[in-house]
Amino acid sequence: MNGIDITGKFKGIENGVRALVGPEDGLRIEVRTDPRQKINVLKTTVRGLEPEQDVDIEIFFFVEVDELTTVGPEGGIVKDLDGSILISIPQHALSSTTKIALTKVNGSGQIGSTYQLAPEGMNLNLPVTVTMKYHPGNLPPGTVEDDLFLIFGNQFPRKMEDLSVDKTAHAVSGTIMSFSKVLTSYYVKVGKKLKDIPKASDFRLPIGDNSDASYSCGQDYQIPSKNDLGETLTLLHRSSYPNFDYPKIFLNKNSTVNRWHVITAFNRNRYINSASGPTRDRNSLYRGHKDIFSNGEDWILVRHGNDHQGLPIHAIADGLVIYNDRMGNGYAIVLAHQIDNGPILSVYSHVDEKSPCAVGTIVHKGNVIGKIGRVEAGHTYLHFEIGRQSLIRMDGETGEIKVPATWFWEWTQDSVYENYYDPTNFISNIMGKYQWDFNVNGNNEGWIANNVRKYENGYMYKVKDGMLSLKPASSNLQVESYPLKVEAECFDSVFIRMRNDTLDGHGRVCFATDEEPHFFEDKAVEFEILNDGKFNDYRVFMADNHKWKGAIVGIRIDFPTTVNGKTGEIDFDTIRLGRGYLSRTPDTGQTKCFDNSQEITCPATDEPFYGQDAHYAIHPPSFEVKTINCHEVVIDHVSGLTWQRRDNGTKRTWKEAMDYCENLTLAGYSDWRLPTKKELQSIADYGCFGPAIDTAYFPSSHLPDDCFWSATTRAFLSLSARSMCLWNTQTKMSIKSDHNYVRAVRGRSLEFCHFKDNGDGTVMDITTGLMWDKRETMPMTWEKALACCENLDLAGYDDWRLPNIRELLSLVDDSRHEPSIGEPLIHTACFPGCRPSPYWSSTTHSLYPGFAWYVEFDDGQVHGGGHKGRRHHVRPVRGGG
Asked: What is the C-alpha separation between 339 and 430, in angstroms, rounded?
């Protein structure tokens, strides 16, 4: 400035003045005082600076204080003359003798006056108690004394700890760990009740839109534009910085024009986490504040600097506006959403301008409720939070929602943990996540630990090297999920892989449902645990509890006891929901390879005809003959089923077959039943023919007339049921009055077709563990079908293959009783493009090598007469092991 008089550059602002000097706000000077008072001329001279070189300027102000009290390490009291405020400083709170200034700030606080404590920002060794008086007659309408609390902080308000209200003395007390501005605040009614909060049935991200969208408060839901990626959660990417416990979070990572990045992650402190570089930022909100942690995420549009100021902020779900006012130096808008677990809040701050969405407005998912802002000379970004119900109150008489008159900004590490959810983890879990692998350092994936000892960095957990680690306290360790939304009918078990030398006895998996959204002992299943210091796999069969039904909205794993004297860690490798009795698909038994006409030596990788059935033996047949109570049965160790080894040689109608099995007592069991079509086909051997079954385990004297009934029938063909001939494994629809043989089975029914769309072009069958390509292909020959699947790279996987006939058959939905004409027998919601046409399997007909087995999806039939030169559709598969 070189001696220039800048007095004229000061402009009036709220509670003070500001001077902006130099290009692009190169220097900012603020004086928080009455702008009508005379301002002294400020002159300075700066010489010899290179372009972009920084300079430190110290400016000394002489201010008038109300009280100046000297307090030493022995402690003391600081108060004003009329007793409106009293600061009680305990012994050892101060390290040395300090002059403490108490000044009433011009203007008033929200209730009573605002006071400034100095030395500002001075950290204390122990909590200091602040007590402020109030006059009951000055309380705002609808506010009661229990609504009062104290806040402190200069730029960003922060709620004091250890709050209490003395209604007799008309005083509010709280504790602080540093000196700053203090005042009394309160909760205010918003004119709505909990029942007015709309149900949030679907969620999205608040960002992802680089268009110039207009406000749309309260408008009906609209499909996002091509510029809005906020609903495409599969583009959300989390990873770790190398050798650094700080998560990287991107949306649309590989884009150059619409890529978003989190610059401050949940429950992190940039001051603490800045040593290795990725979070070093001299403009950090938390610079120099080691006890302040982020209660949300800061989202920024990558490579666009500050030119994305004004981009739209979208409501993450249907919600009720409960706050729309200033927060810090910018604006914020807060929505309340109703989920099965209770209300949650979404908070959007660092907003460019006050939103036109008034308090009390119902908004819908995707509505534009604000514009991303740039507060003063800082970055342009959105600060996004997911808050818990603890941030608001309910009026004891009217039930109305009450919110803080000044929304809170700064939080300690423990307070963040207690009052907020990690935003992207919350959205991932509430949108159907069911498996947690902990493969991103620092990311607990939405699991909360209770009754644990903290790590050195103050965290309740540690996530590193693919494990979630906890240090249990003396007893009753609890590990609780974020709110979930998964269907109980798709999952009957919780699988836990963990290592432990600290816990003893048993554990317990508790659950909450949409009908009963709280954890109680009547919704829990126990399991035994080992404390051998090794990784062990635990399967907890939740379906044993009759309340495991509807939507599961929360899981909590309890460990009641700790081994005496042990202080080790508990390491979780994975937690997942699944089916305790997966319908594992037995291998077909085919061990030979074929080309288009004959048997060949099995090809190597990249050679023609690689990828056929014989190349993959994922669940080889494993039968065992057992004699129980003088009766022979066959145990299938792959499917878990127990079979009648020999039928009694009598042909029966379908009704007679059902009655025979229901009344059968064999090997001491009376729970025999007629097998389903897929169960019956699971014992067929596609590696042989005439008969196509291993007669060492299933002897038969009926060949070739050996067709057996299944229990599978169809309502729209109620006079017919499926049967299978073991001579050639051919299935057919037989009239129920026909006569066929019967082979009974017992054990849990094999289940299929419980699909989950992964949102990335793949579909998982939770019952079989198979992942399918949901897309459609052009018809092709058998040889090209093999190559197509082997060369496929989809959703980050390159181990795709052409399914064998048993895997392909598992897709047929036998429960579709009345399909429309031309509609395939498959779950069309997950496979919307499936044709009612033949689809290739990798299994060759063992008697006729020029033919391969296929499934006709118009009727669900299995056929062995598919000439390999014909063109059929293809459905790639992976997994199942």
From this structure: 9
Instruction: Mention every residue, 6+ apart, whose C-beta is less than 8 A from residue 626.
Output: 632, 633, 634, 635
* Residue 28 clears pLDDT 50, i.e. is over it: no
Q: Dihedral angle at the C-alpha atoms of 503, 507, 513, 519, nearest 10 degrees?
A: -70
DSSP assignment string, 75-102 = -EEEE-TTSSEEEEE-TTSSSS-EEEEE
Note whether 601 and 677 are same-domain residues.
Answer: yes
**Cα-based torsion angle of the residue sequence 838, 844, 847, 848 in order, rounded to the nearest 10 degrees:** 60
Residues 45 and 344: their CA atoms lie apart, in Å, by: 53
DSSP labels, 279-344: T--TT-TTTT-TT-B-SSEEEEETT-TTTTTT-EEE-SSSEEEEEEEEETTEEEEEEEEEETTEEE
Nearest to 654 by CA among 775, 735, 733: 735
Give residue 856's domain range: 581-881
Judgement on whether residues 484 and 409 belong to the same structural domain of the protein:
no
What is the spatial distance between Cα 450 and Cα 571, in angstroms, rounded to a whole number? 15
* Of 749, 746, 750, 712, nearest in space to 584 by CA: 750
Cα–Cα distance measured from residue 256 to residue 648, given in angstroms and rounded to the nearest whole number: 71
Residue 628 and residue 774 share a domain: yes
Beta partners for residue 130, in sequence order = 87, 174
Residue 629: inside a domain, yes or no? yes
Is the distance from CB of 593 to CB of 601 less than 8 angstroms? Answer: yes
Q: Are residues 566 and 526 in the same domain?
A: yes
Q: What is the pTM of this model?
A: 0.69
Alpha-carbon distances of 724 from 300, 342, 507, 816, rounded to whole Å: 61, 52, 45, 20
Please report the DSSP string for 499-545 in residue order: EESSB-SEEEEEEEESSS-S--TTSEEEEE---SSSEEEEEEEGGGS
pLDDT tens profile 657-694: 999 999 999 998 999 999 999 999 999 999 988 888 99
CA angle in degrees (0–180, nearest 5) for 674-680-686: 165
Within a domain: 192: no
H or E element that contains 471: none
Query: Is residue 594 located within the same domain as residue 712?
Result: yes
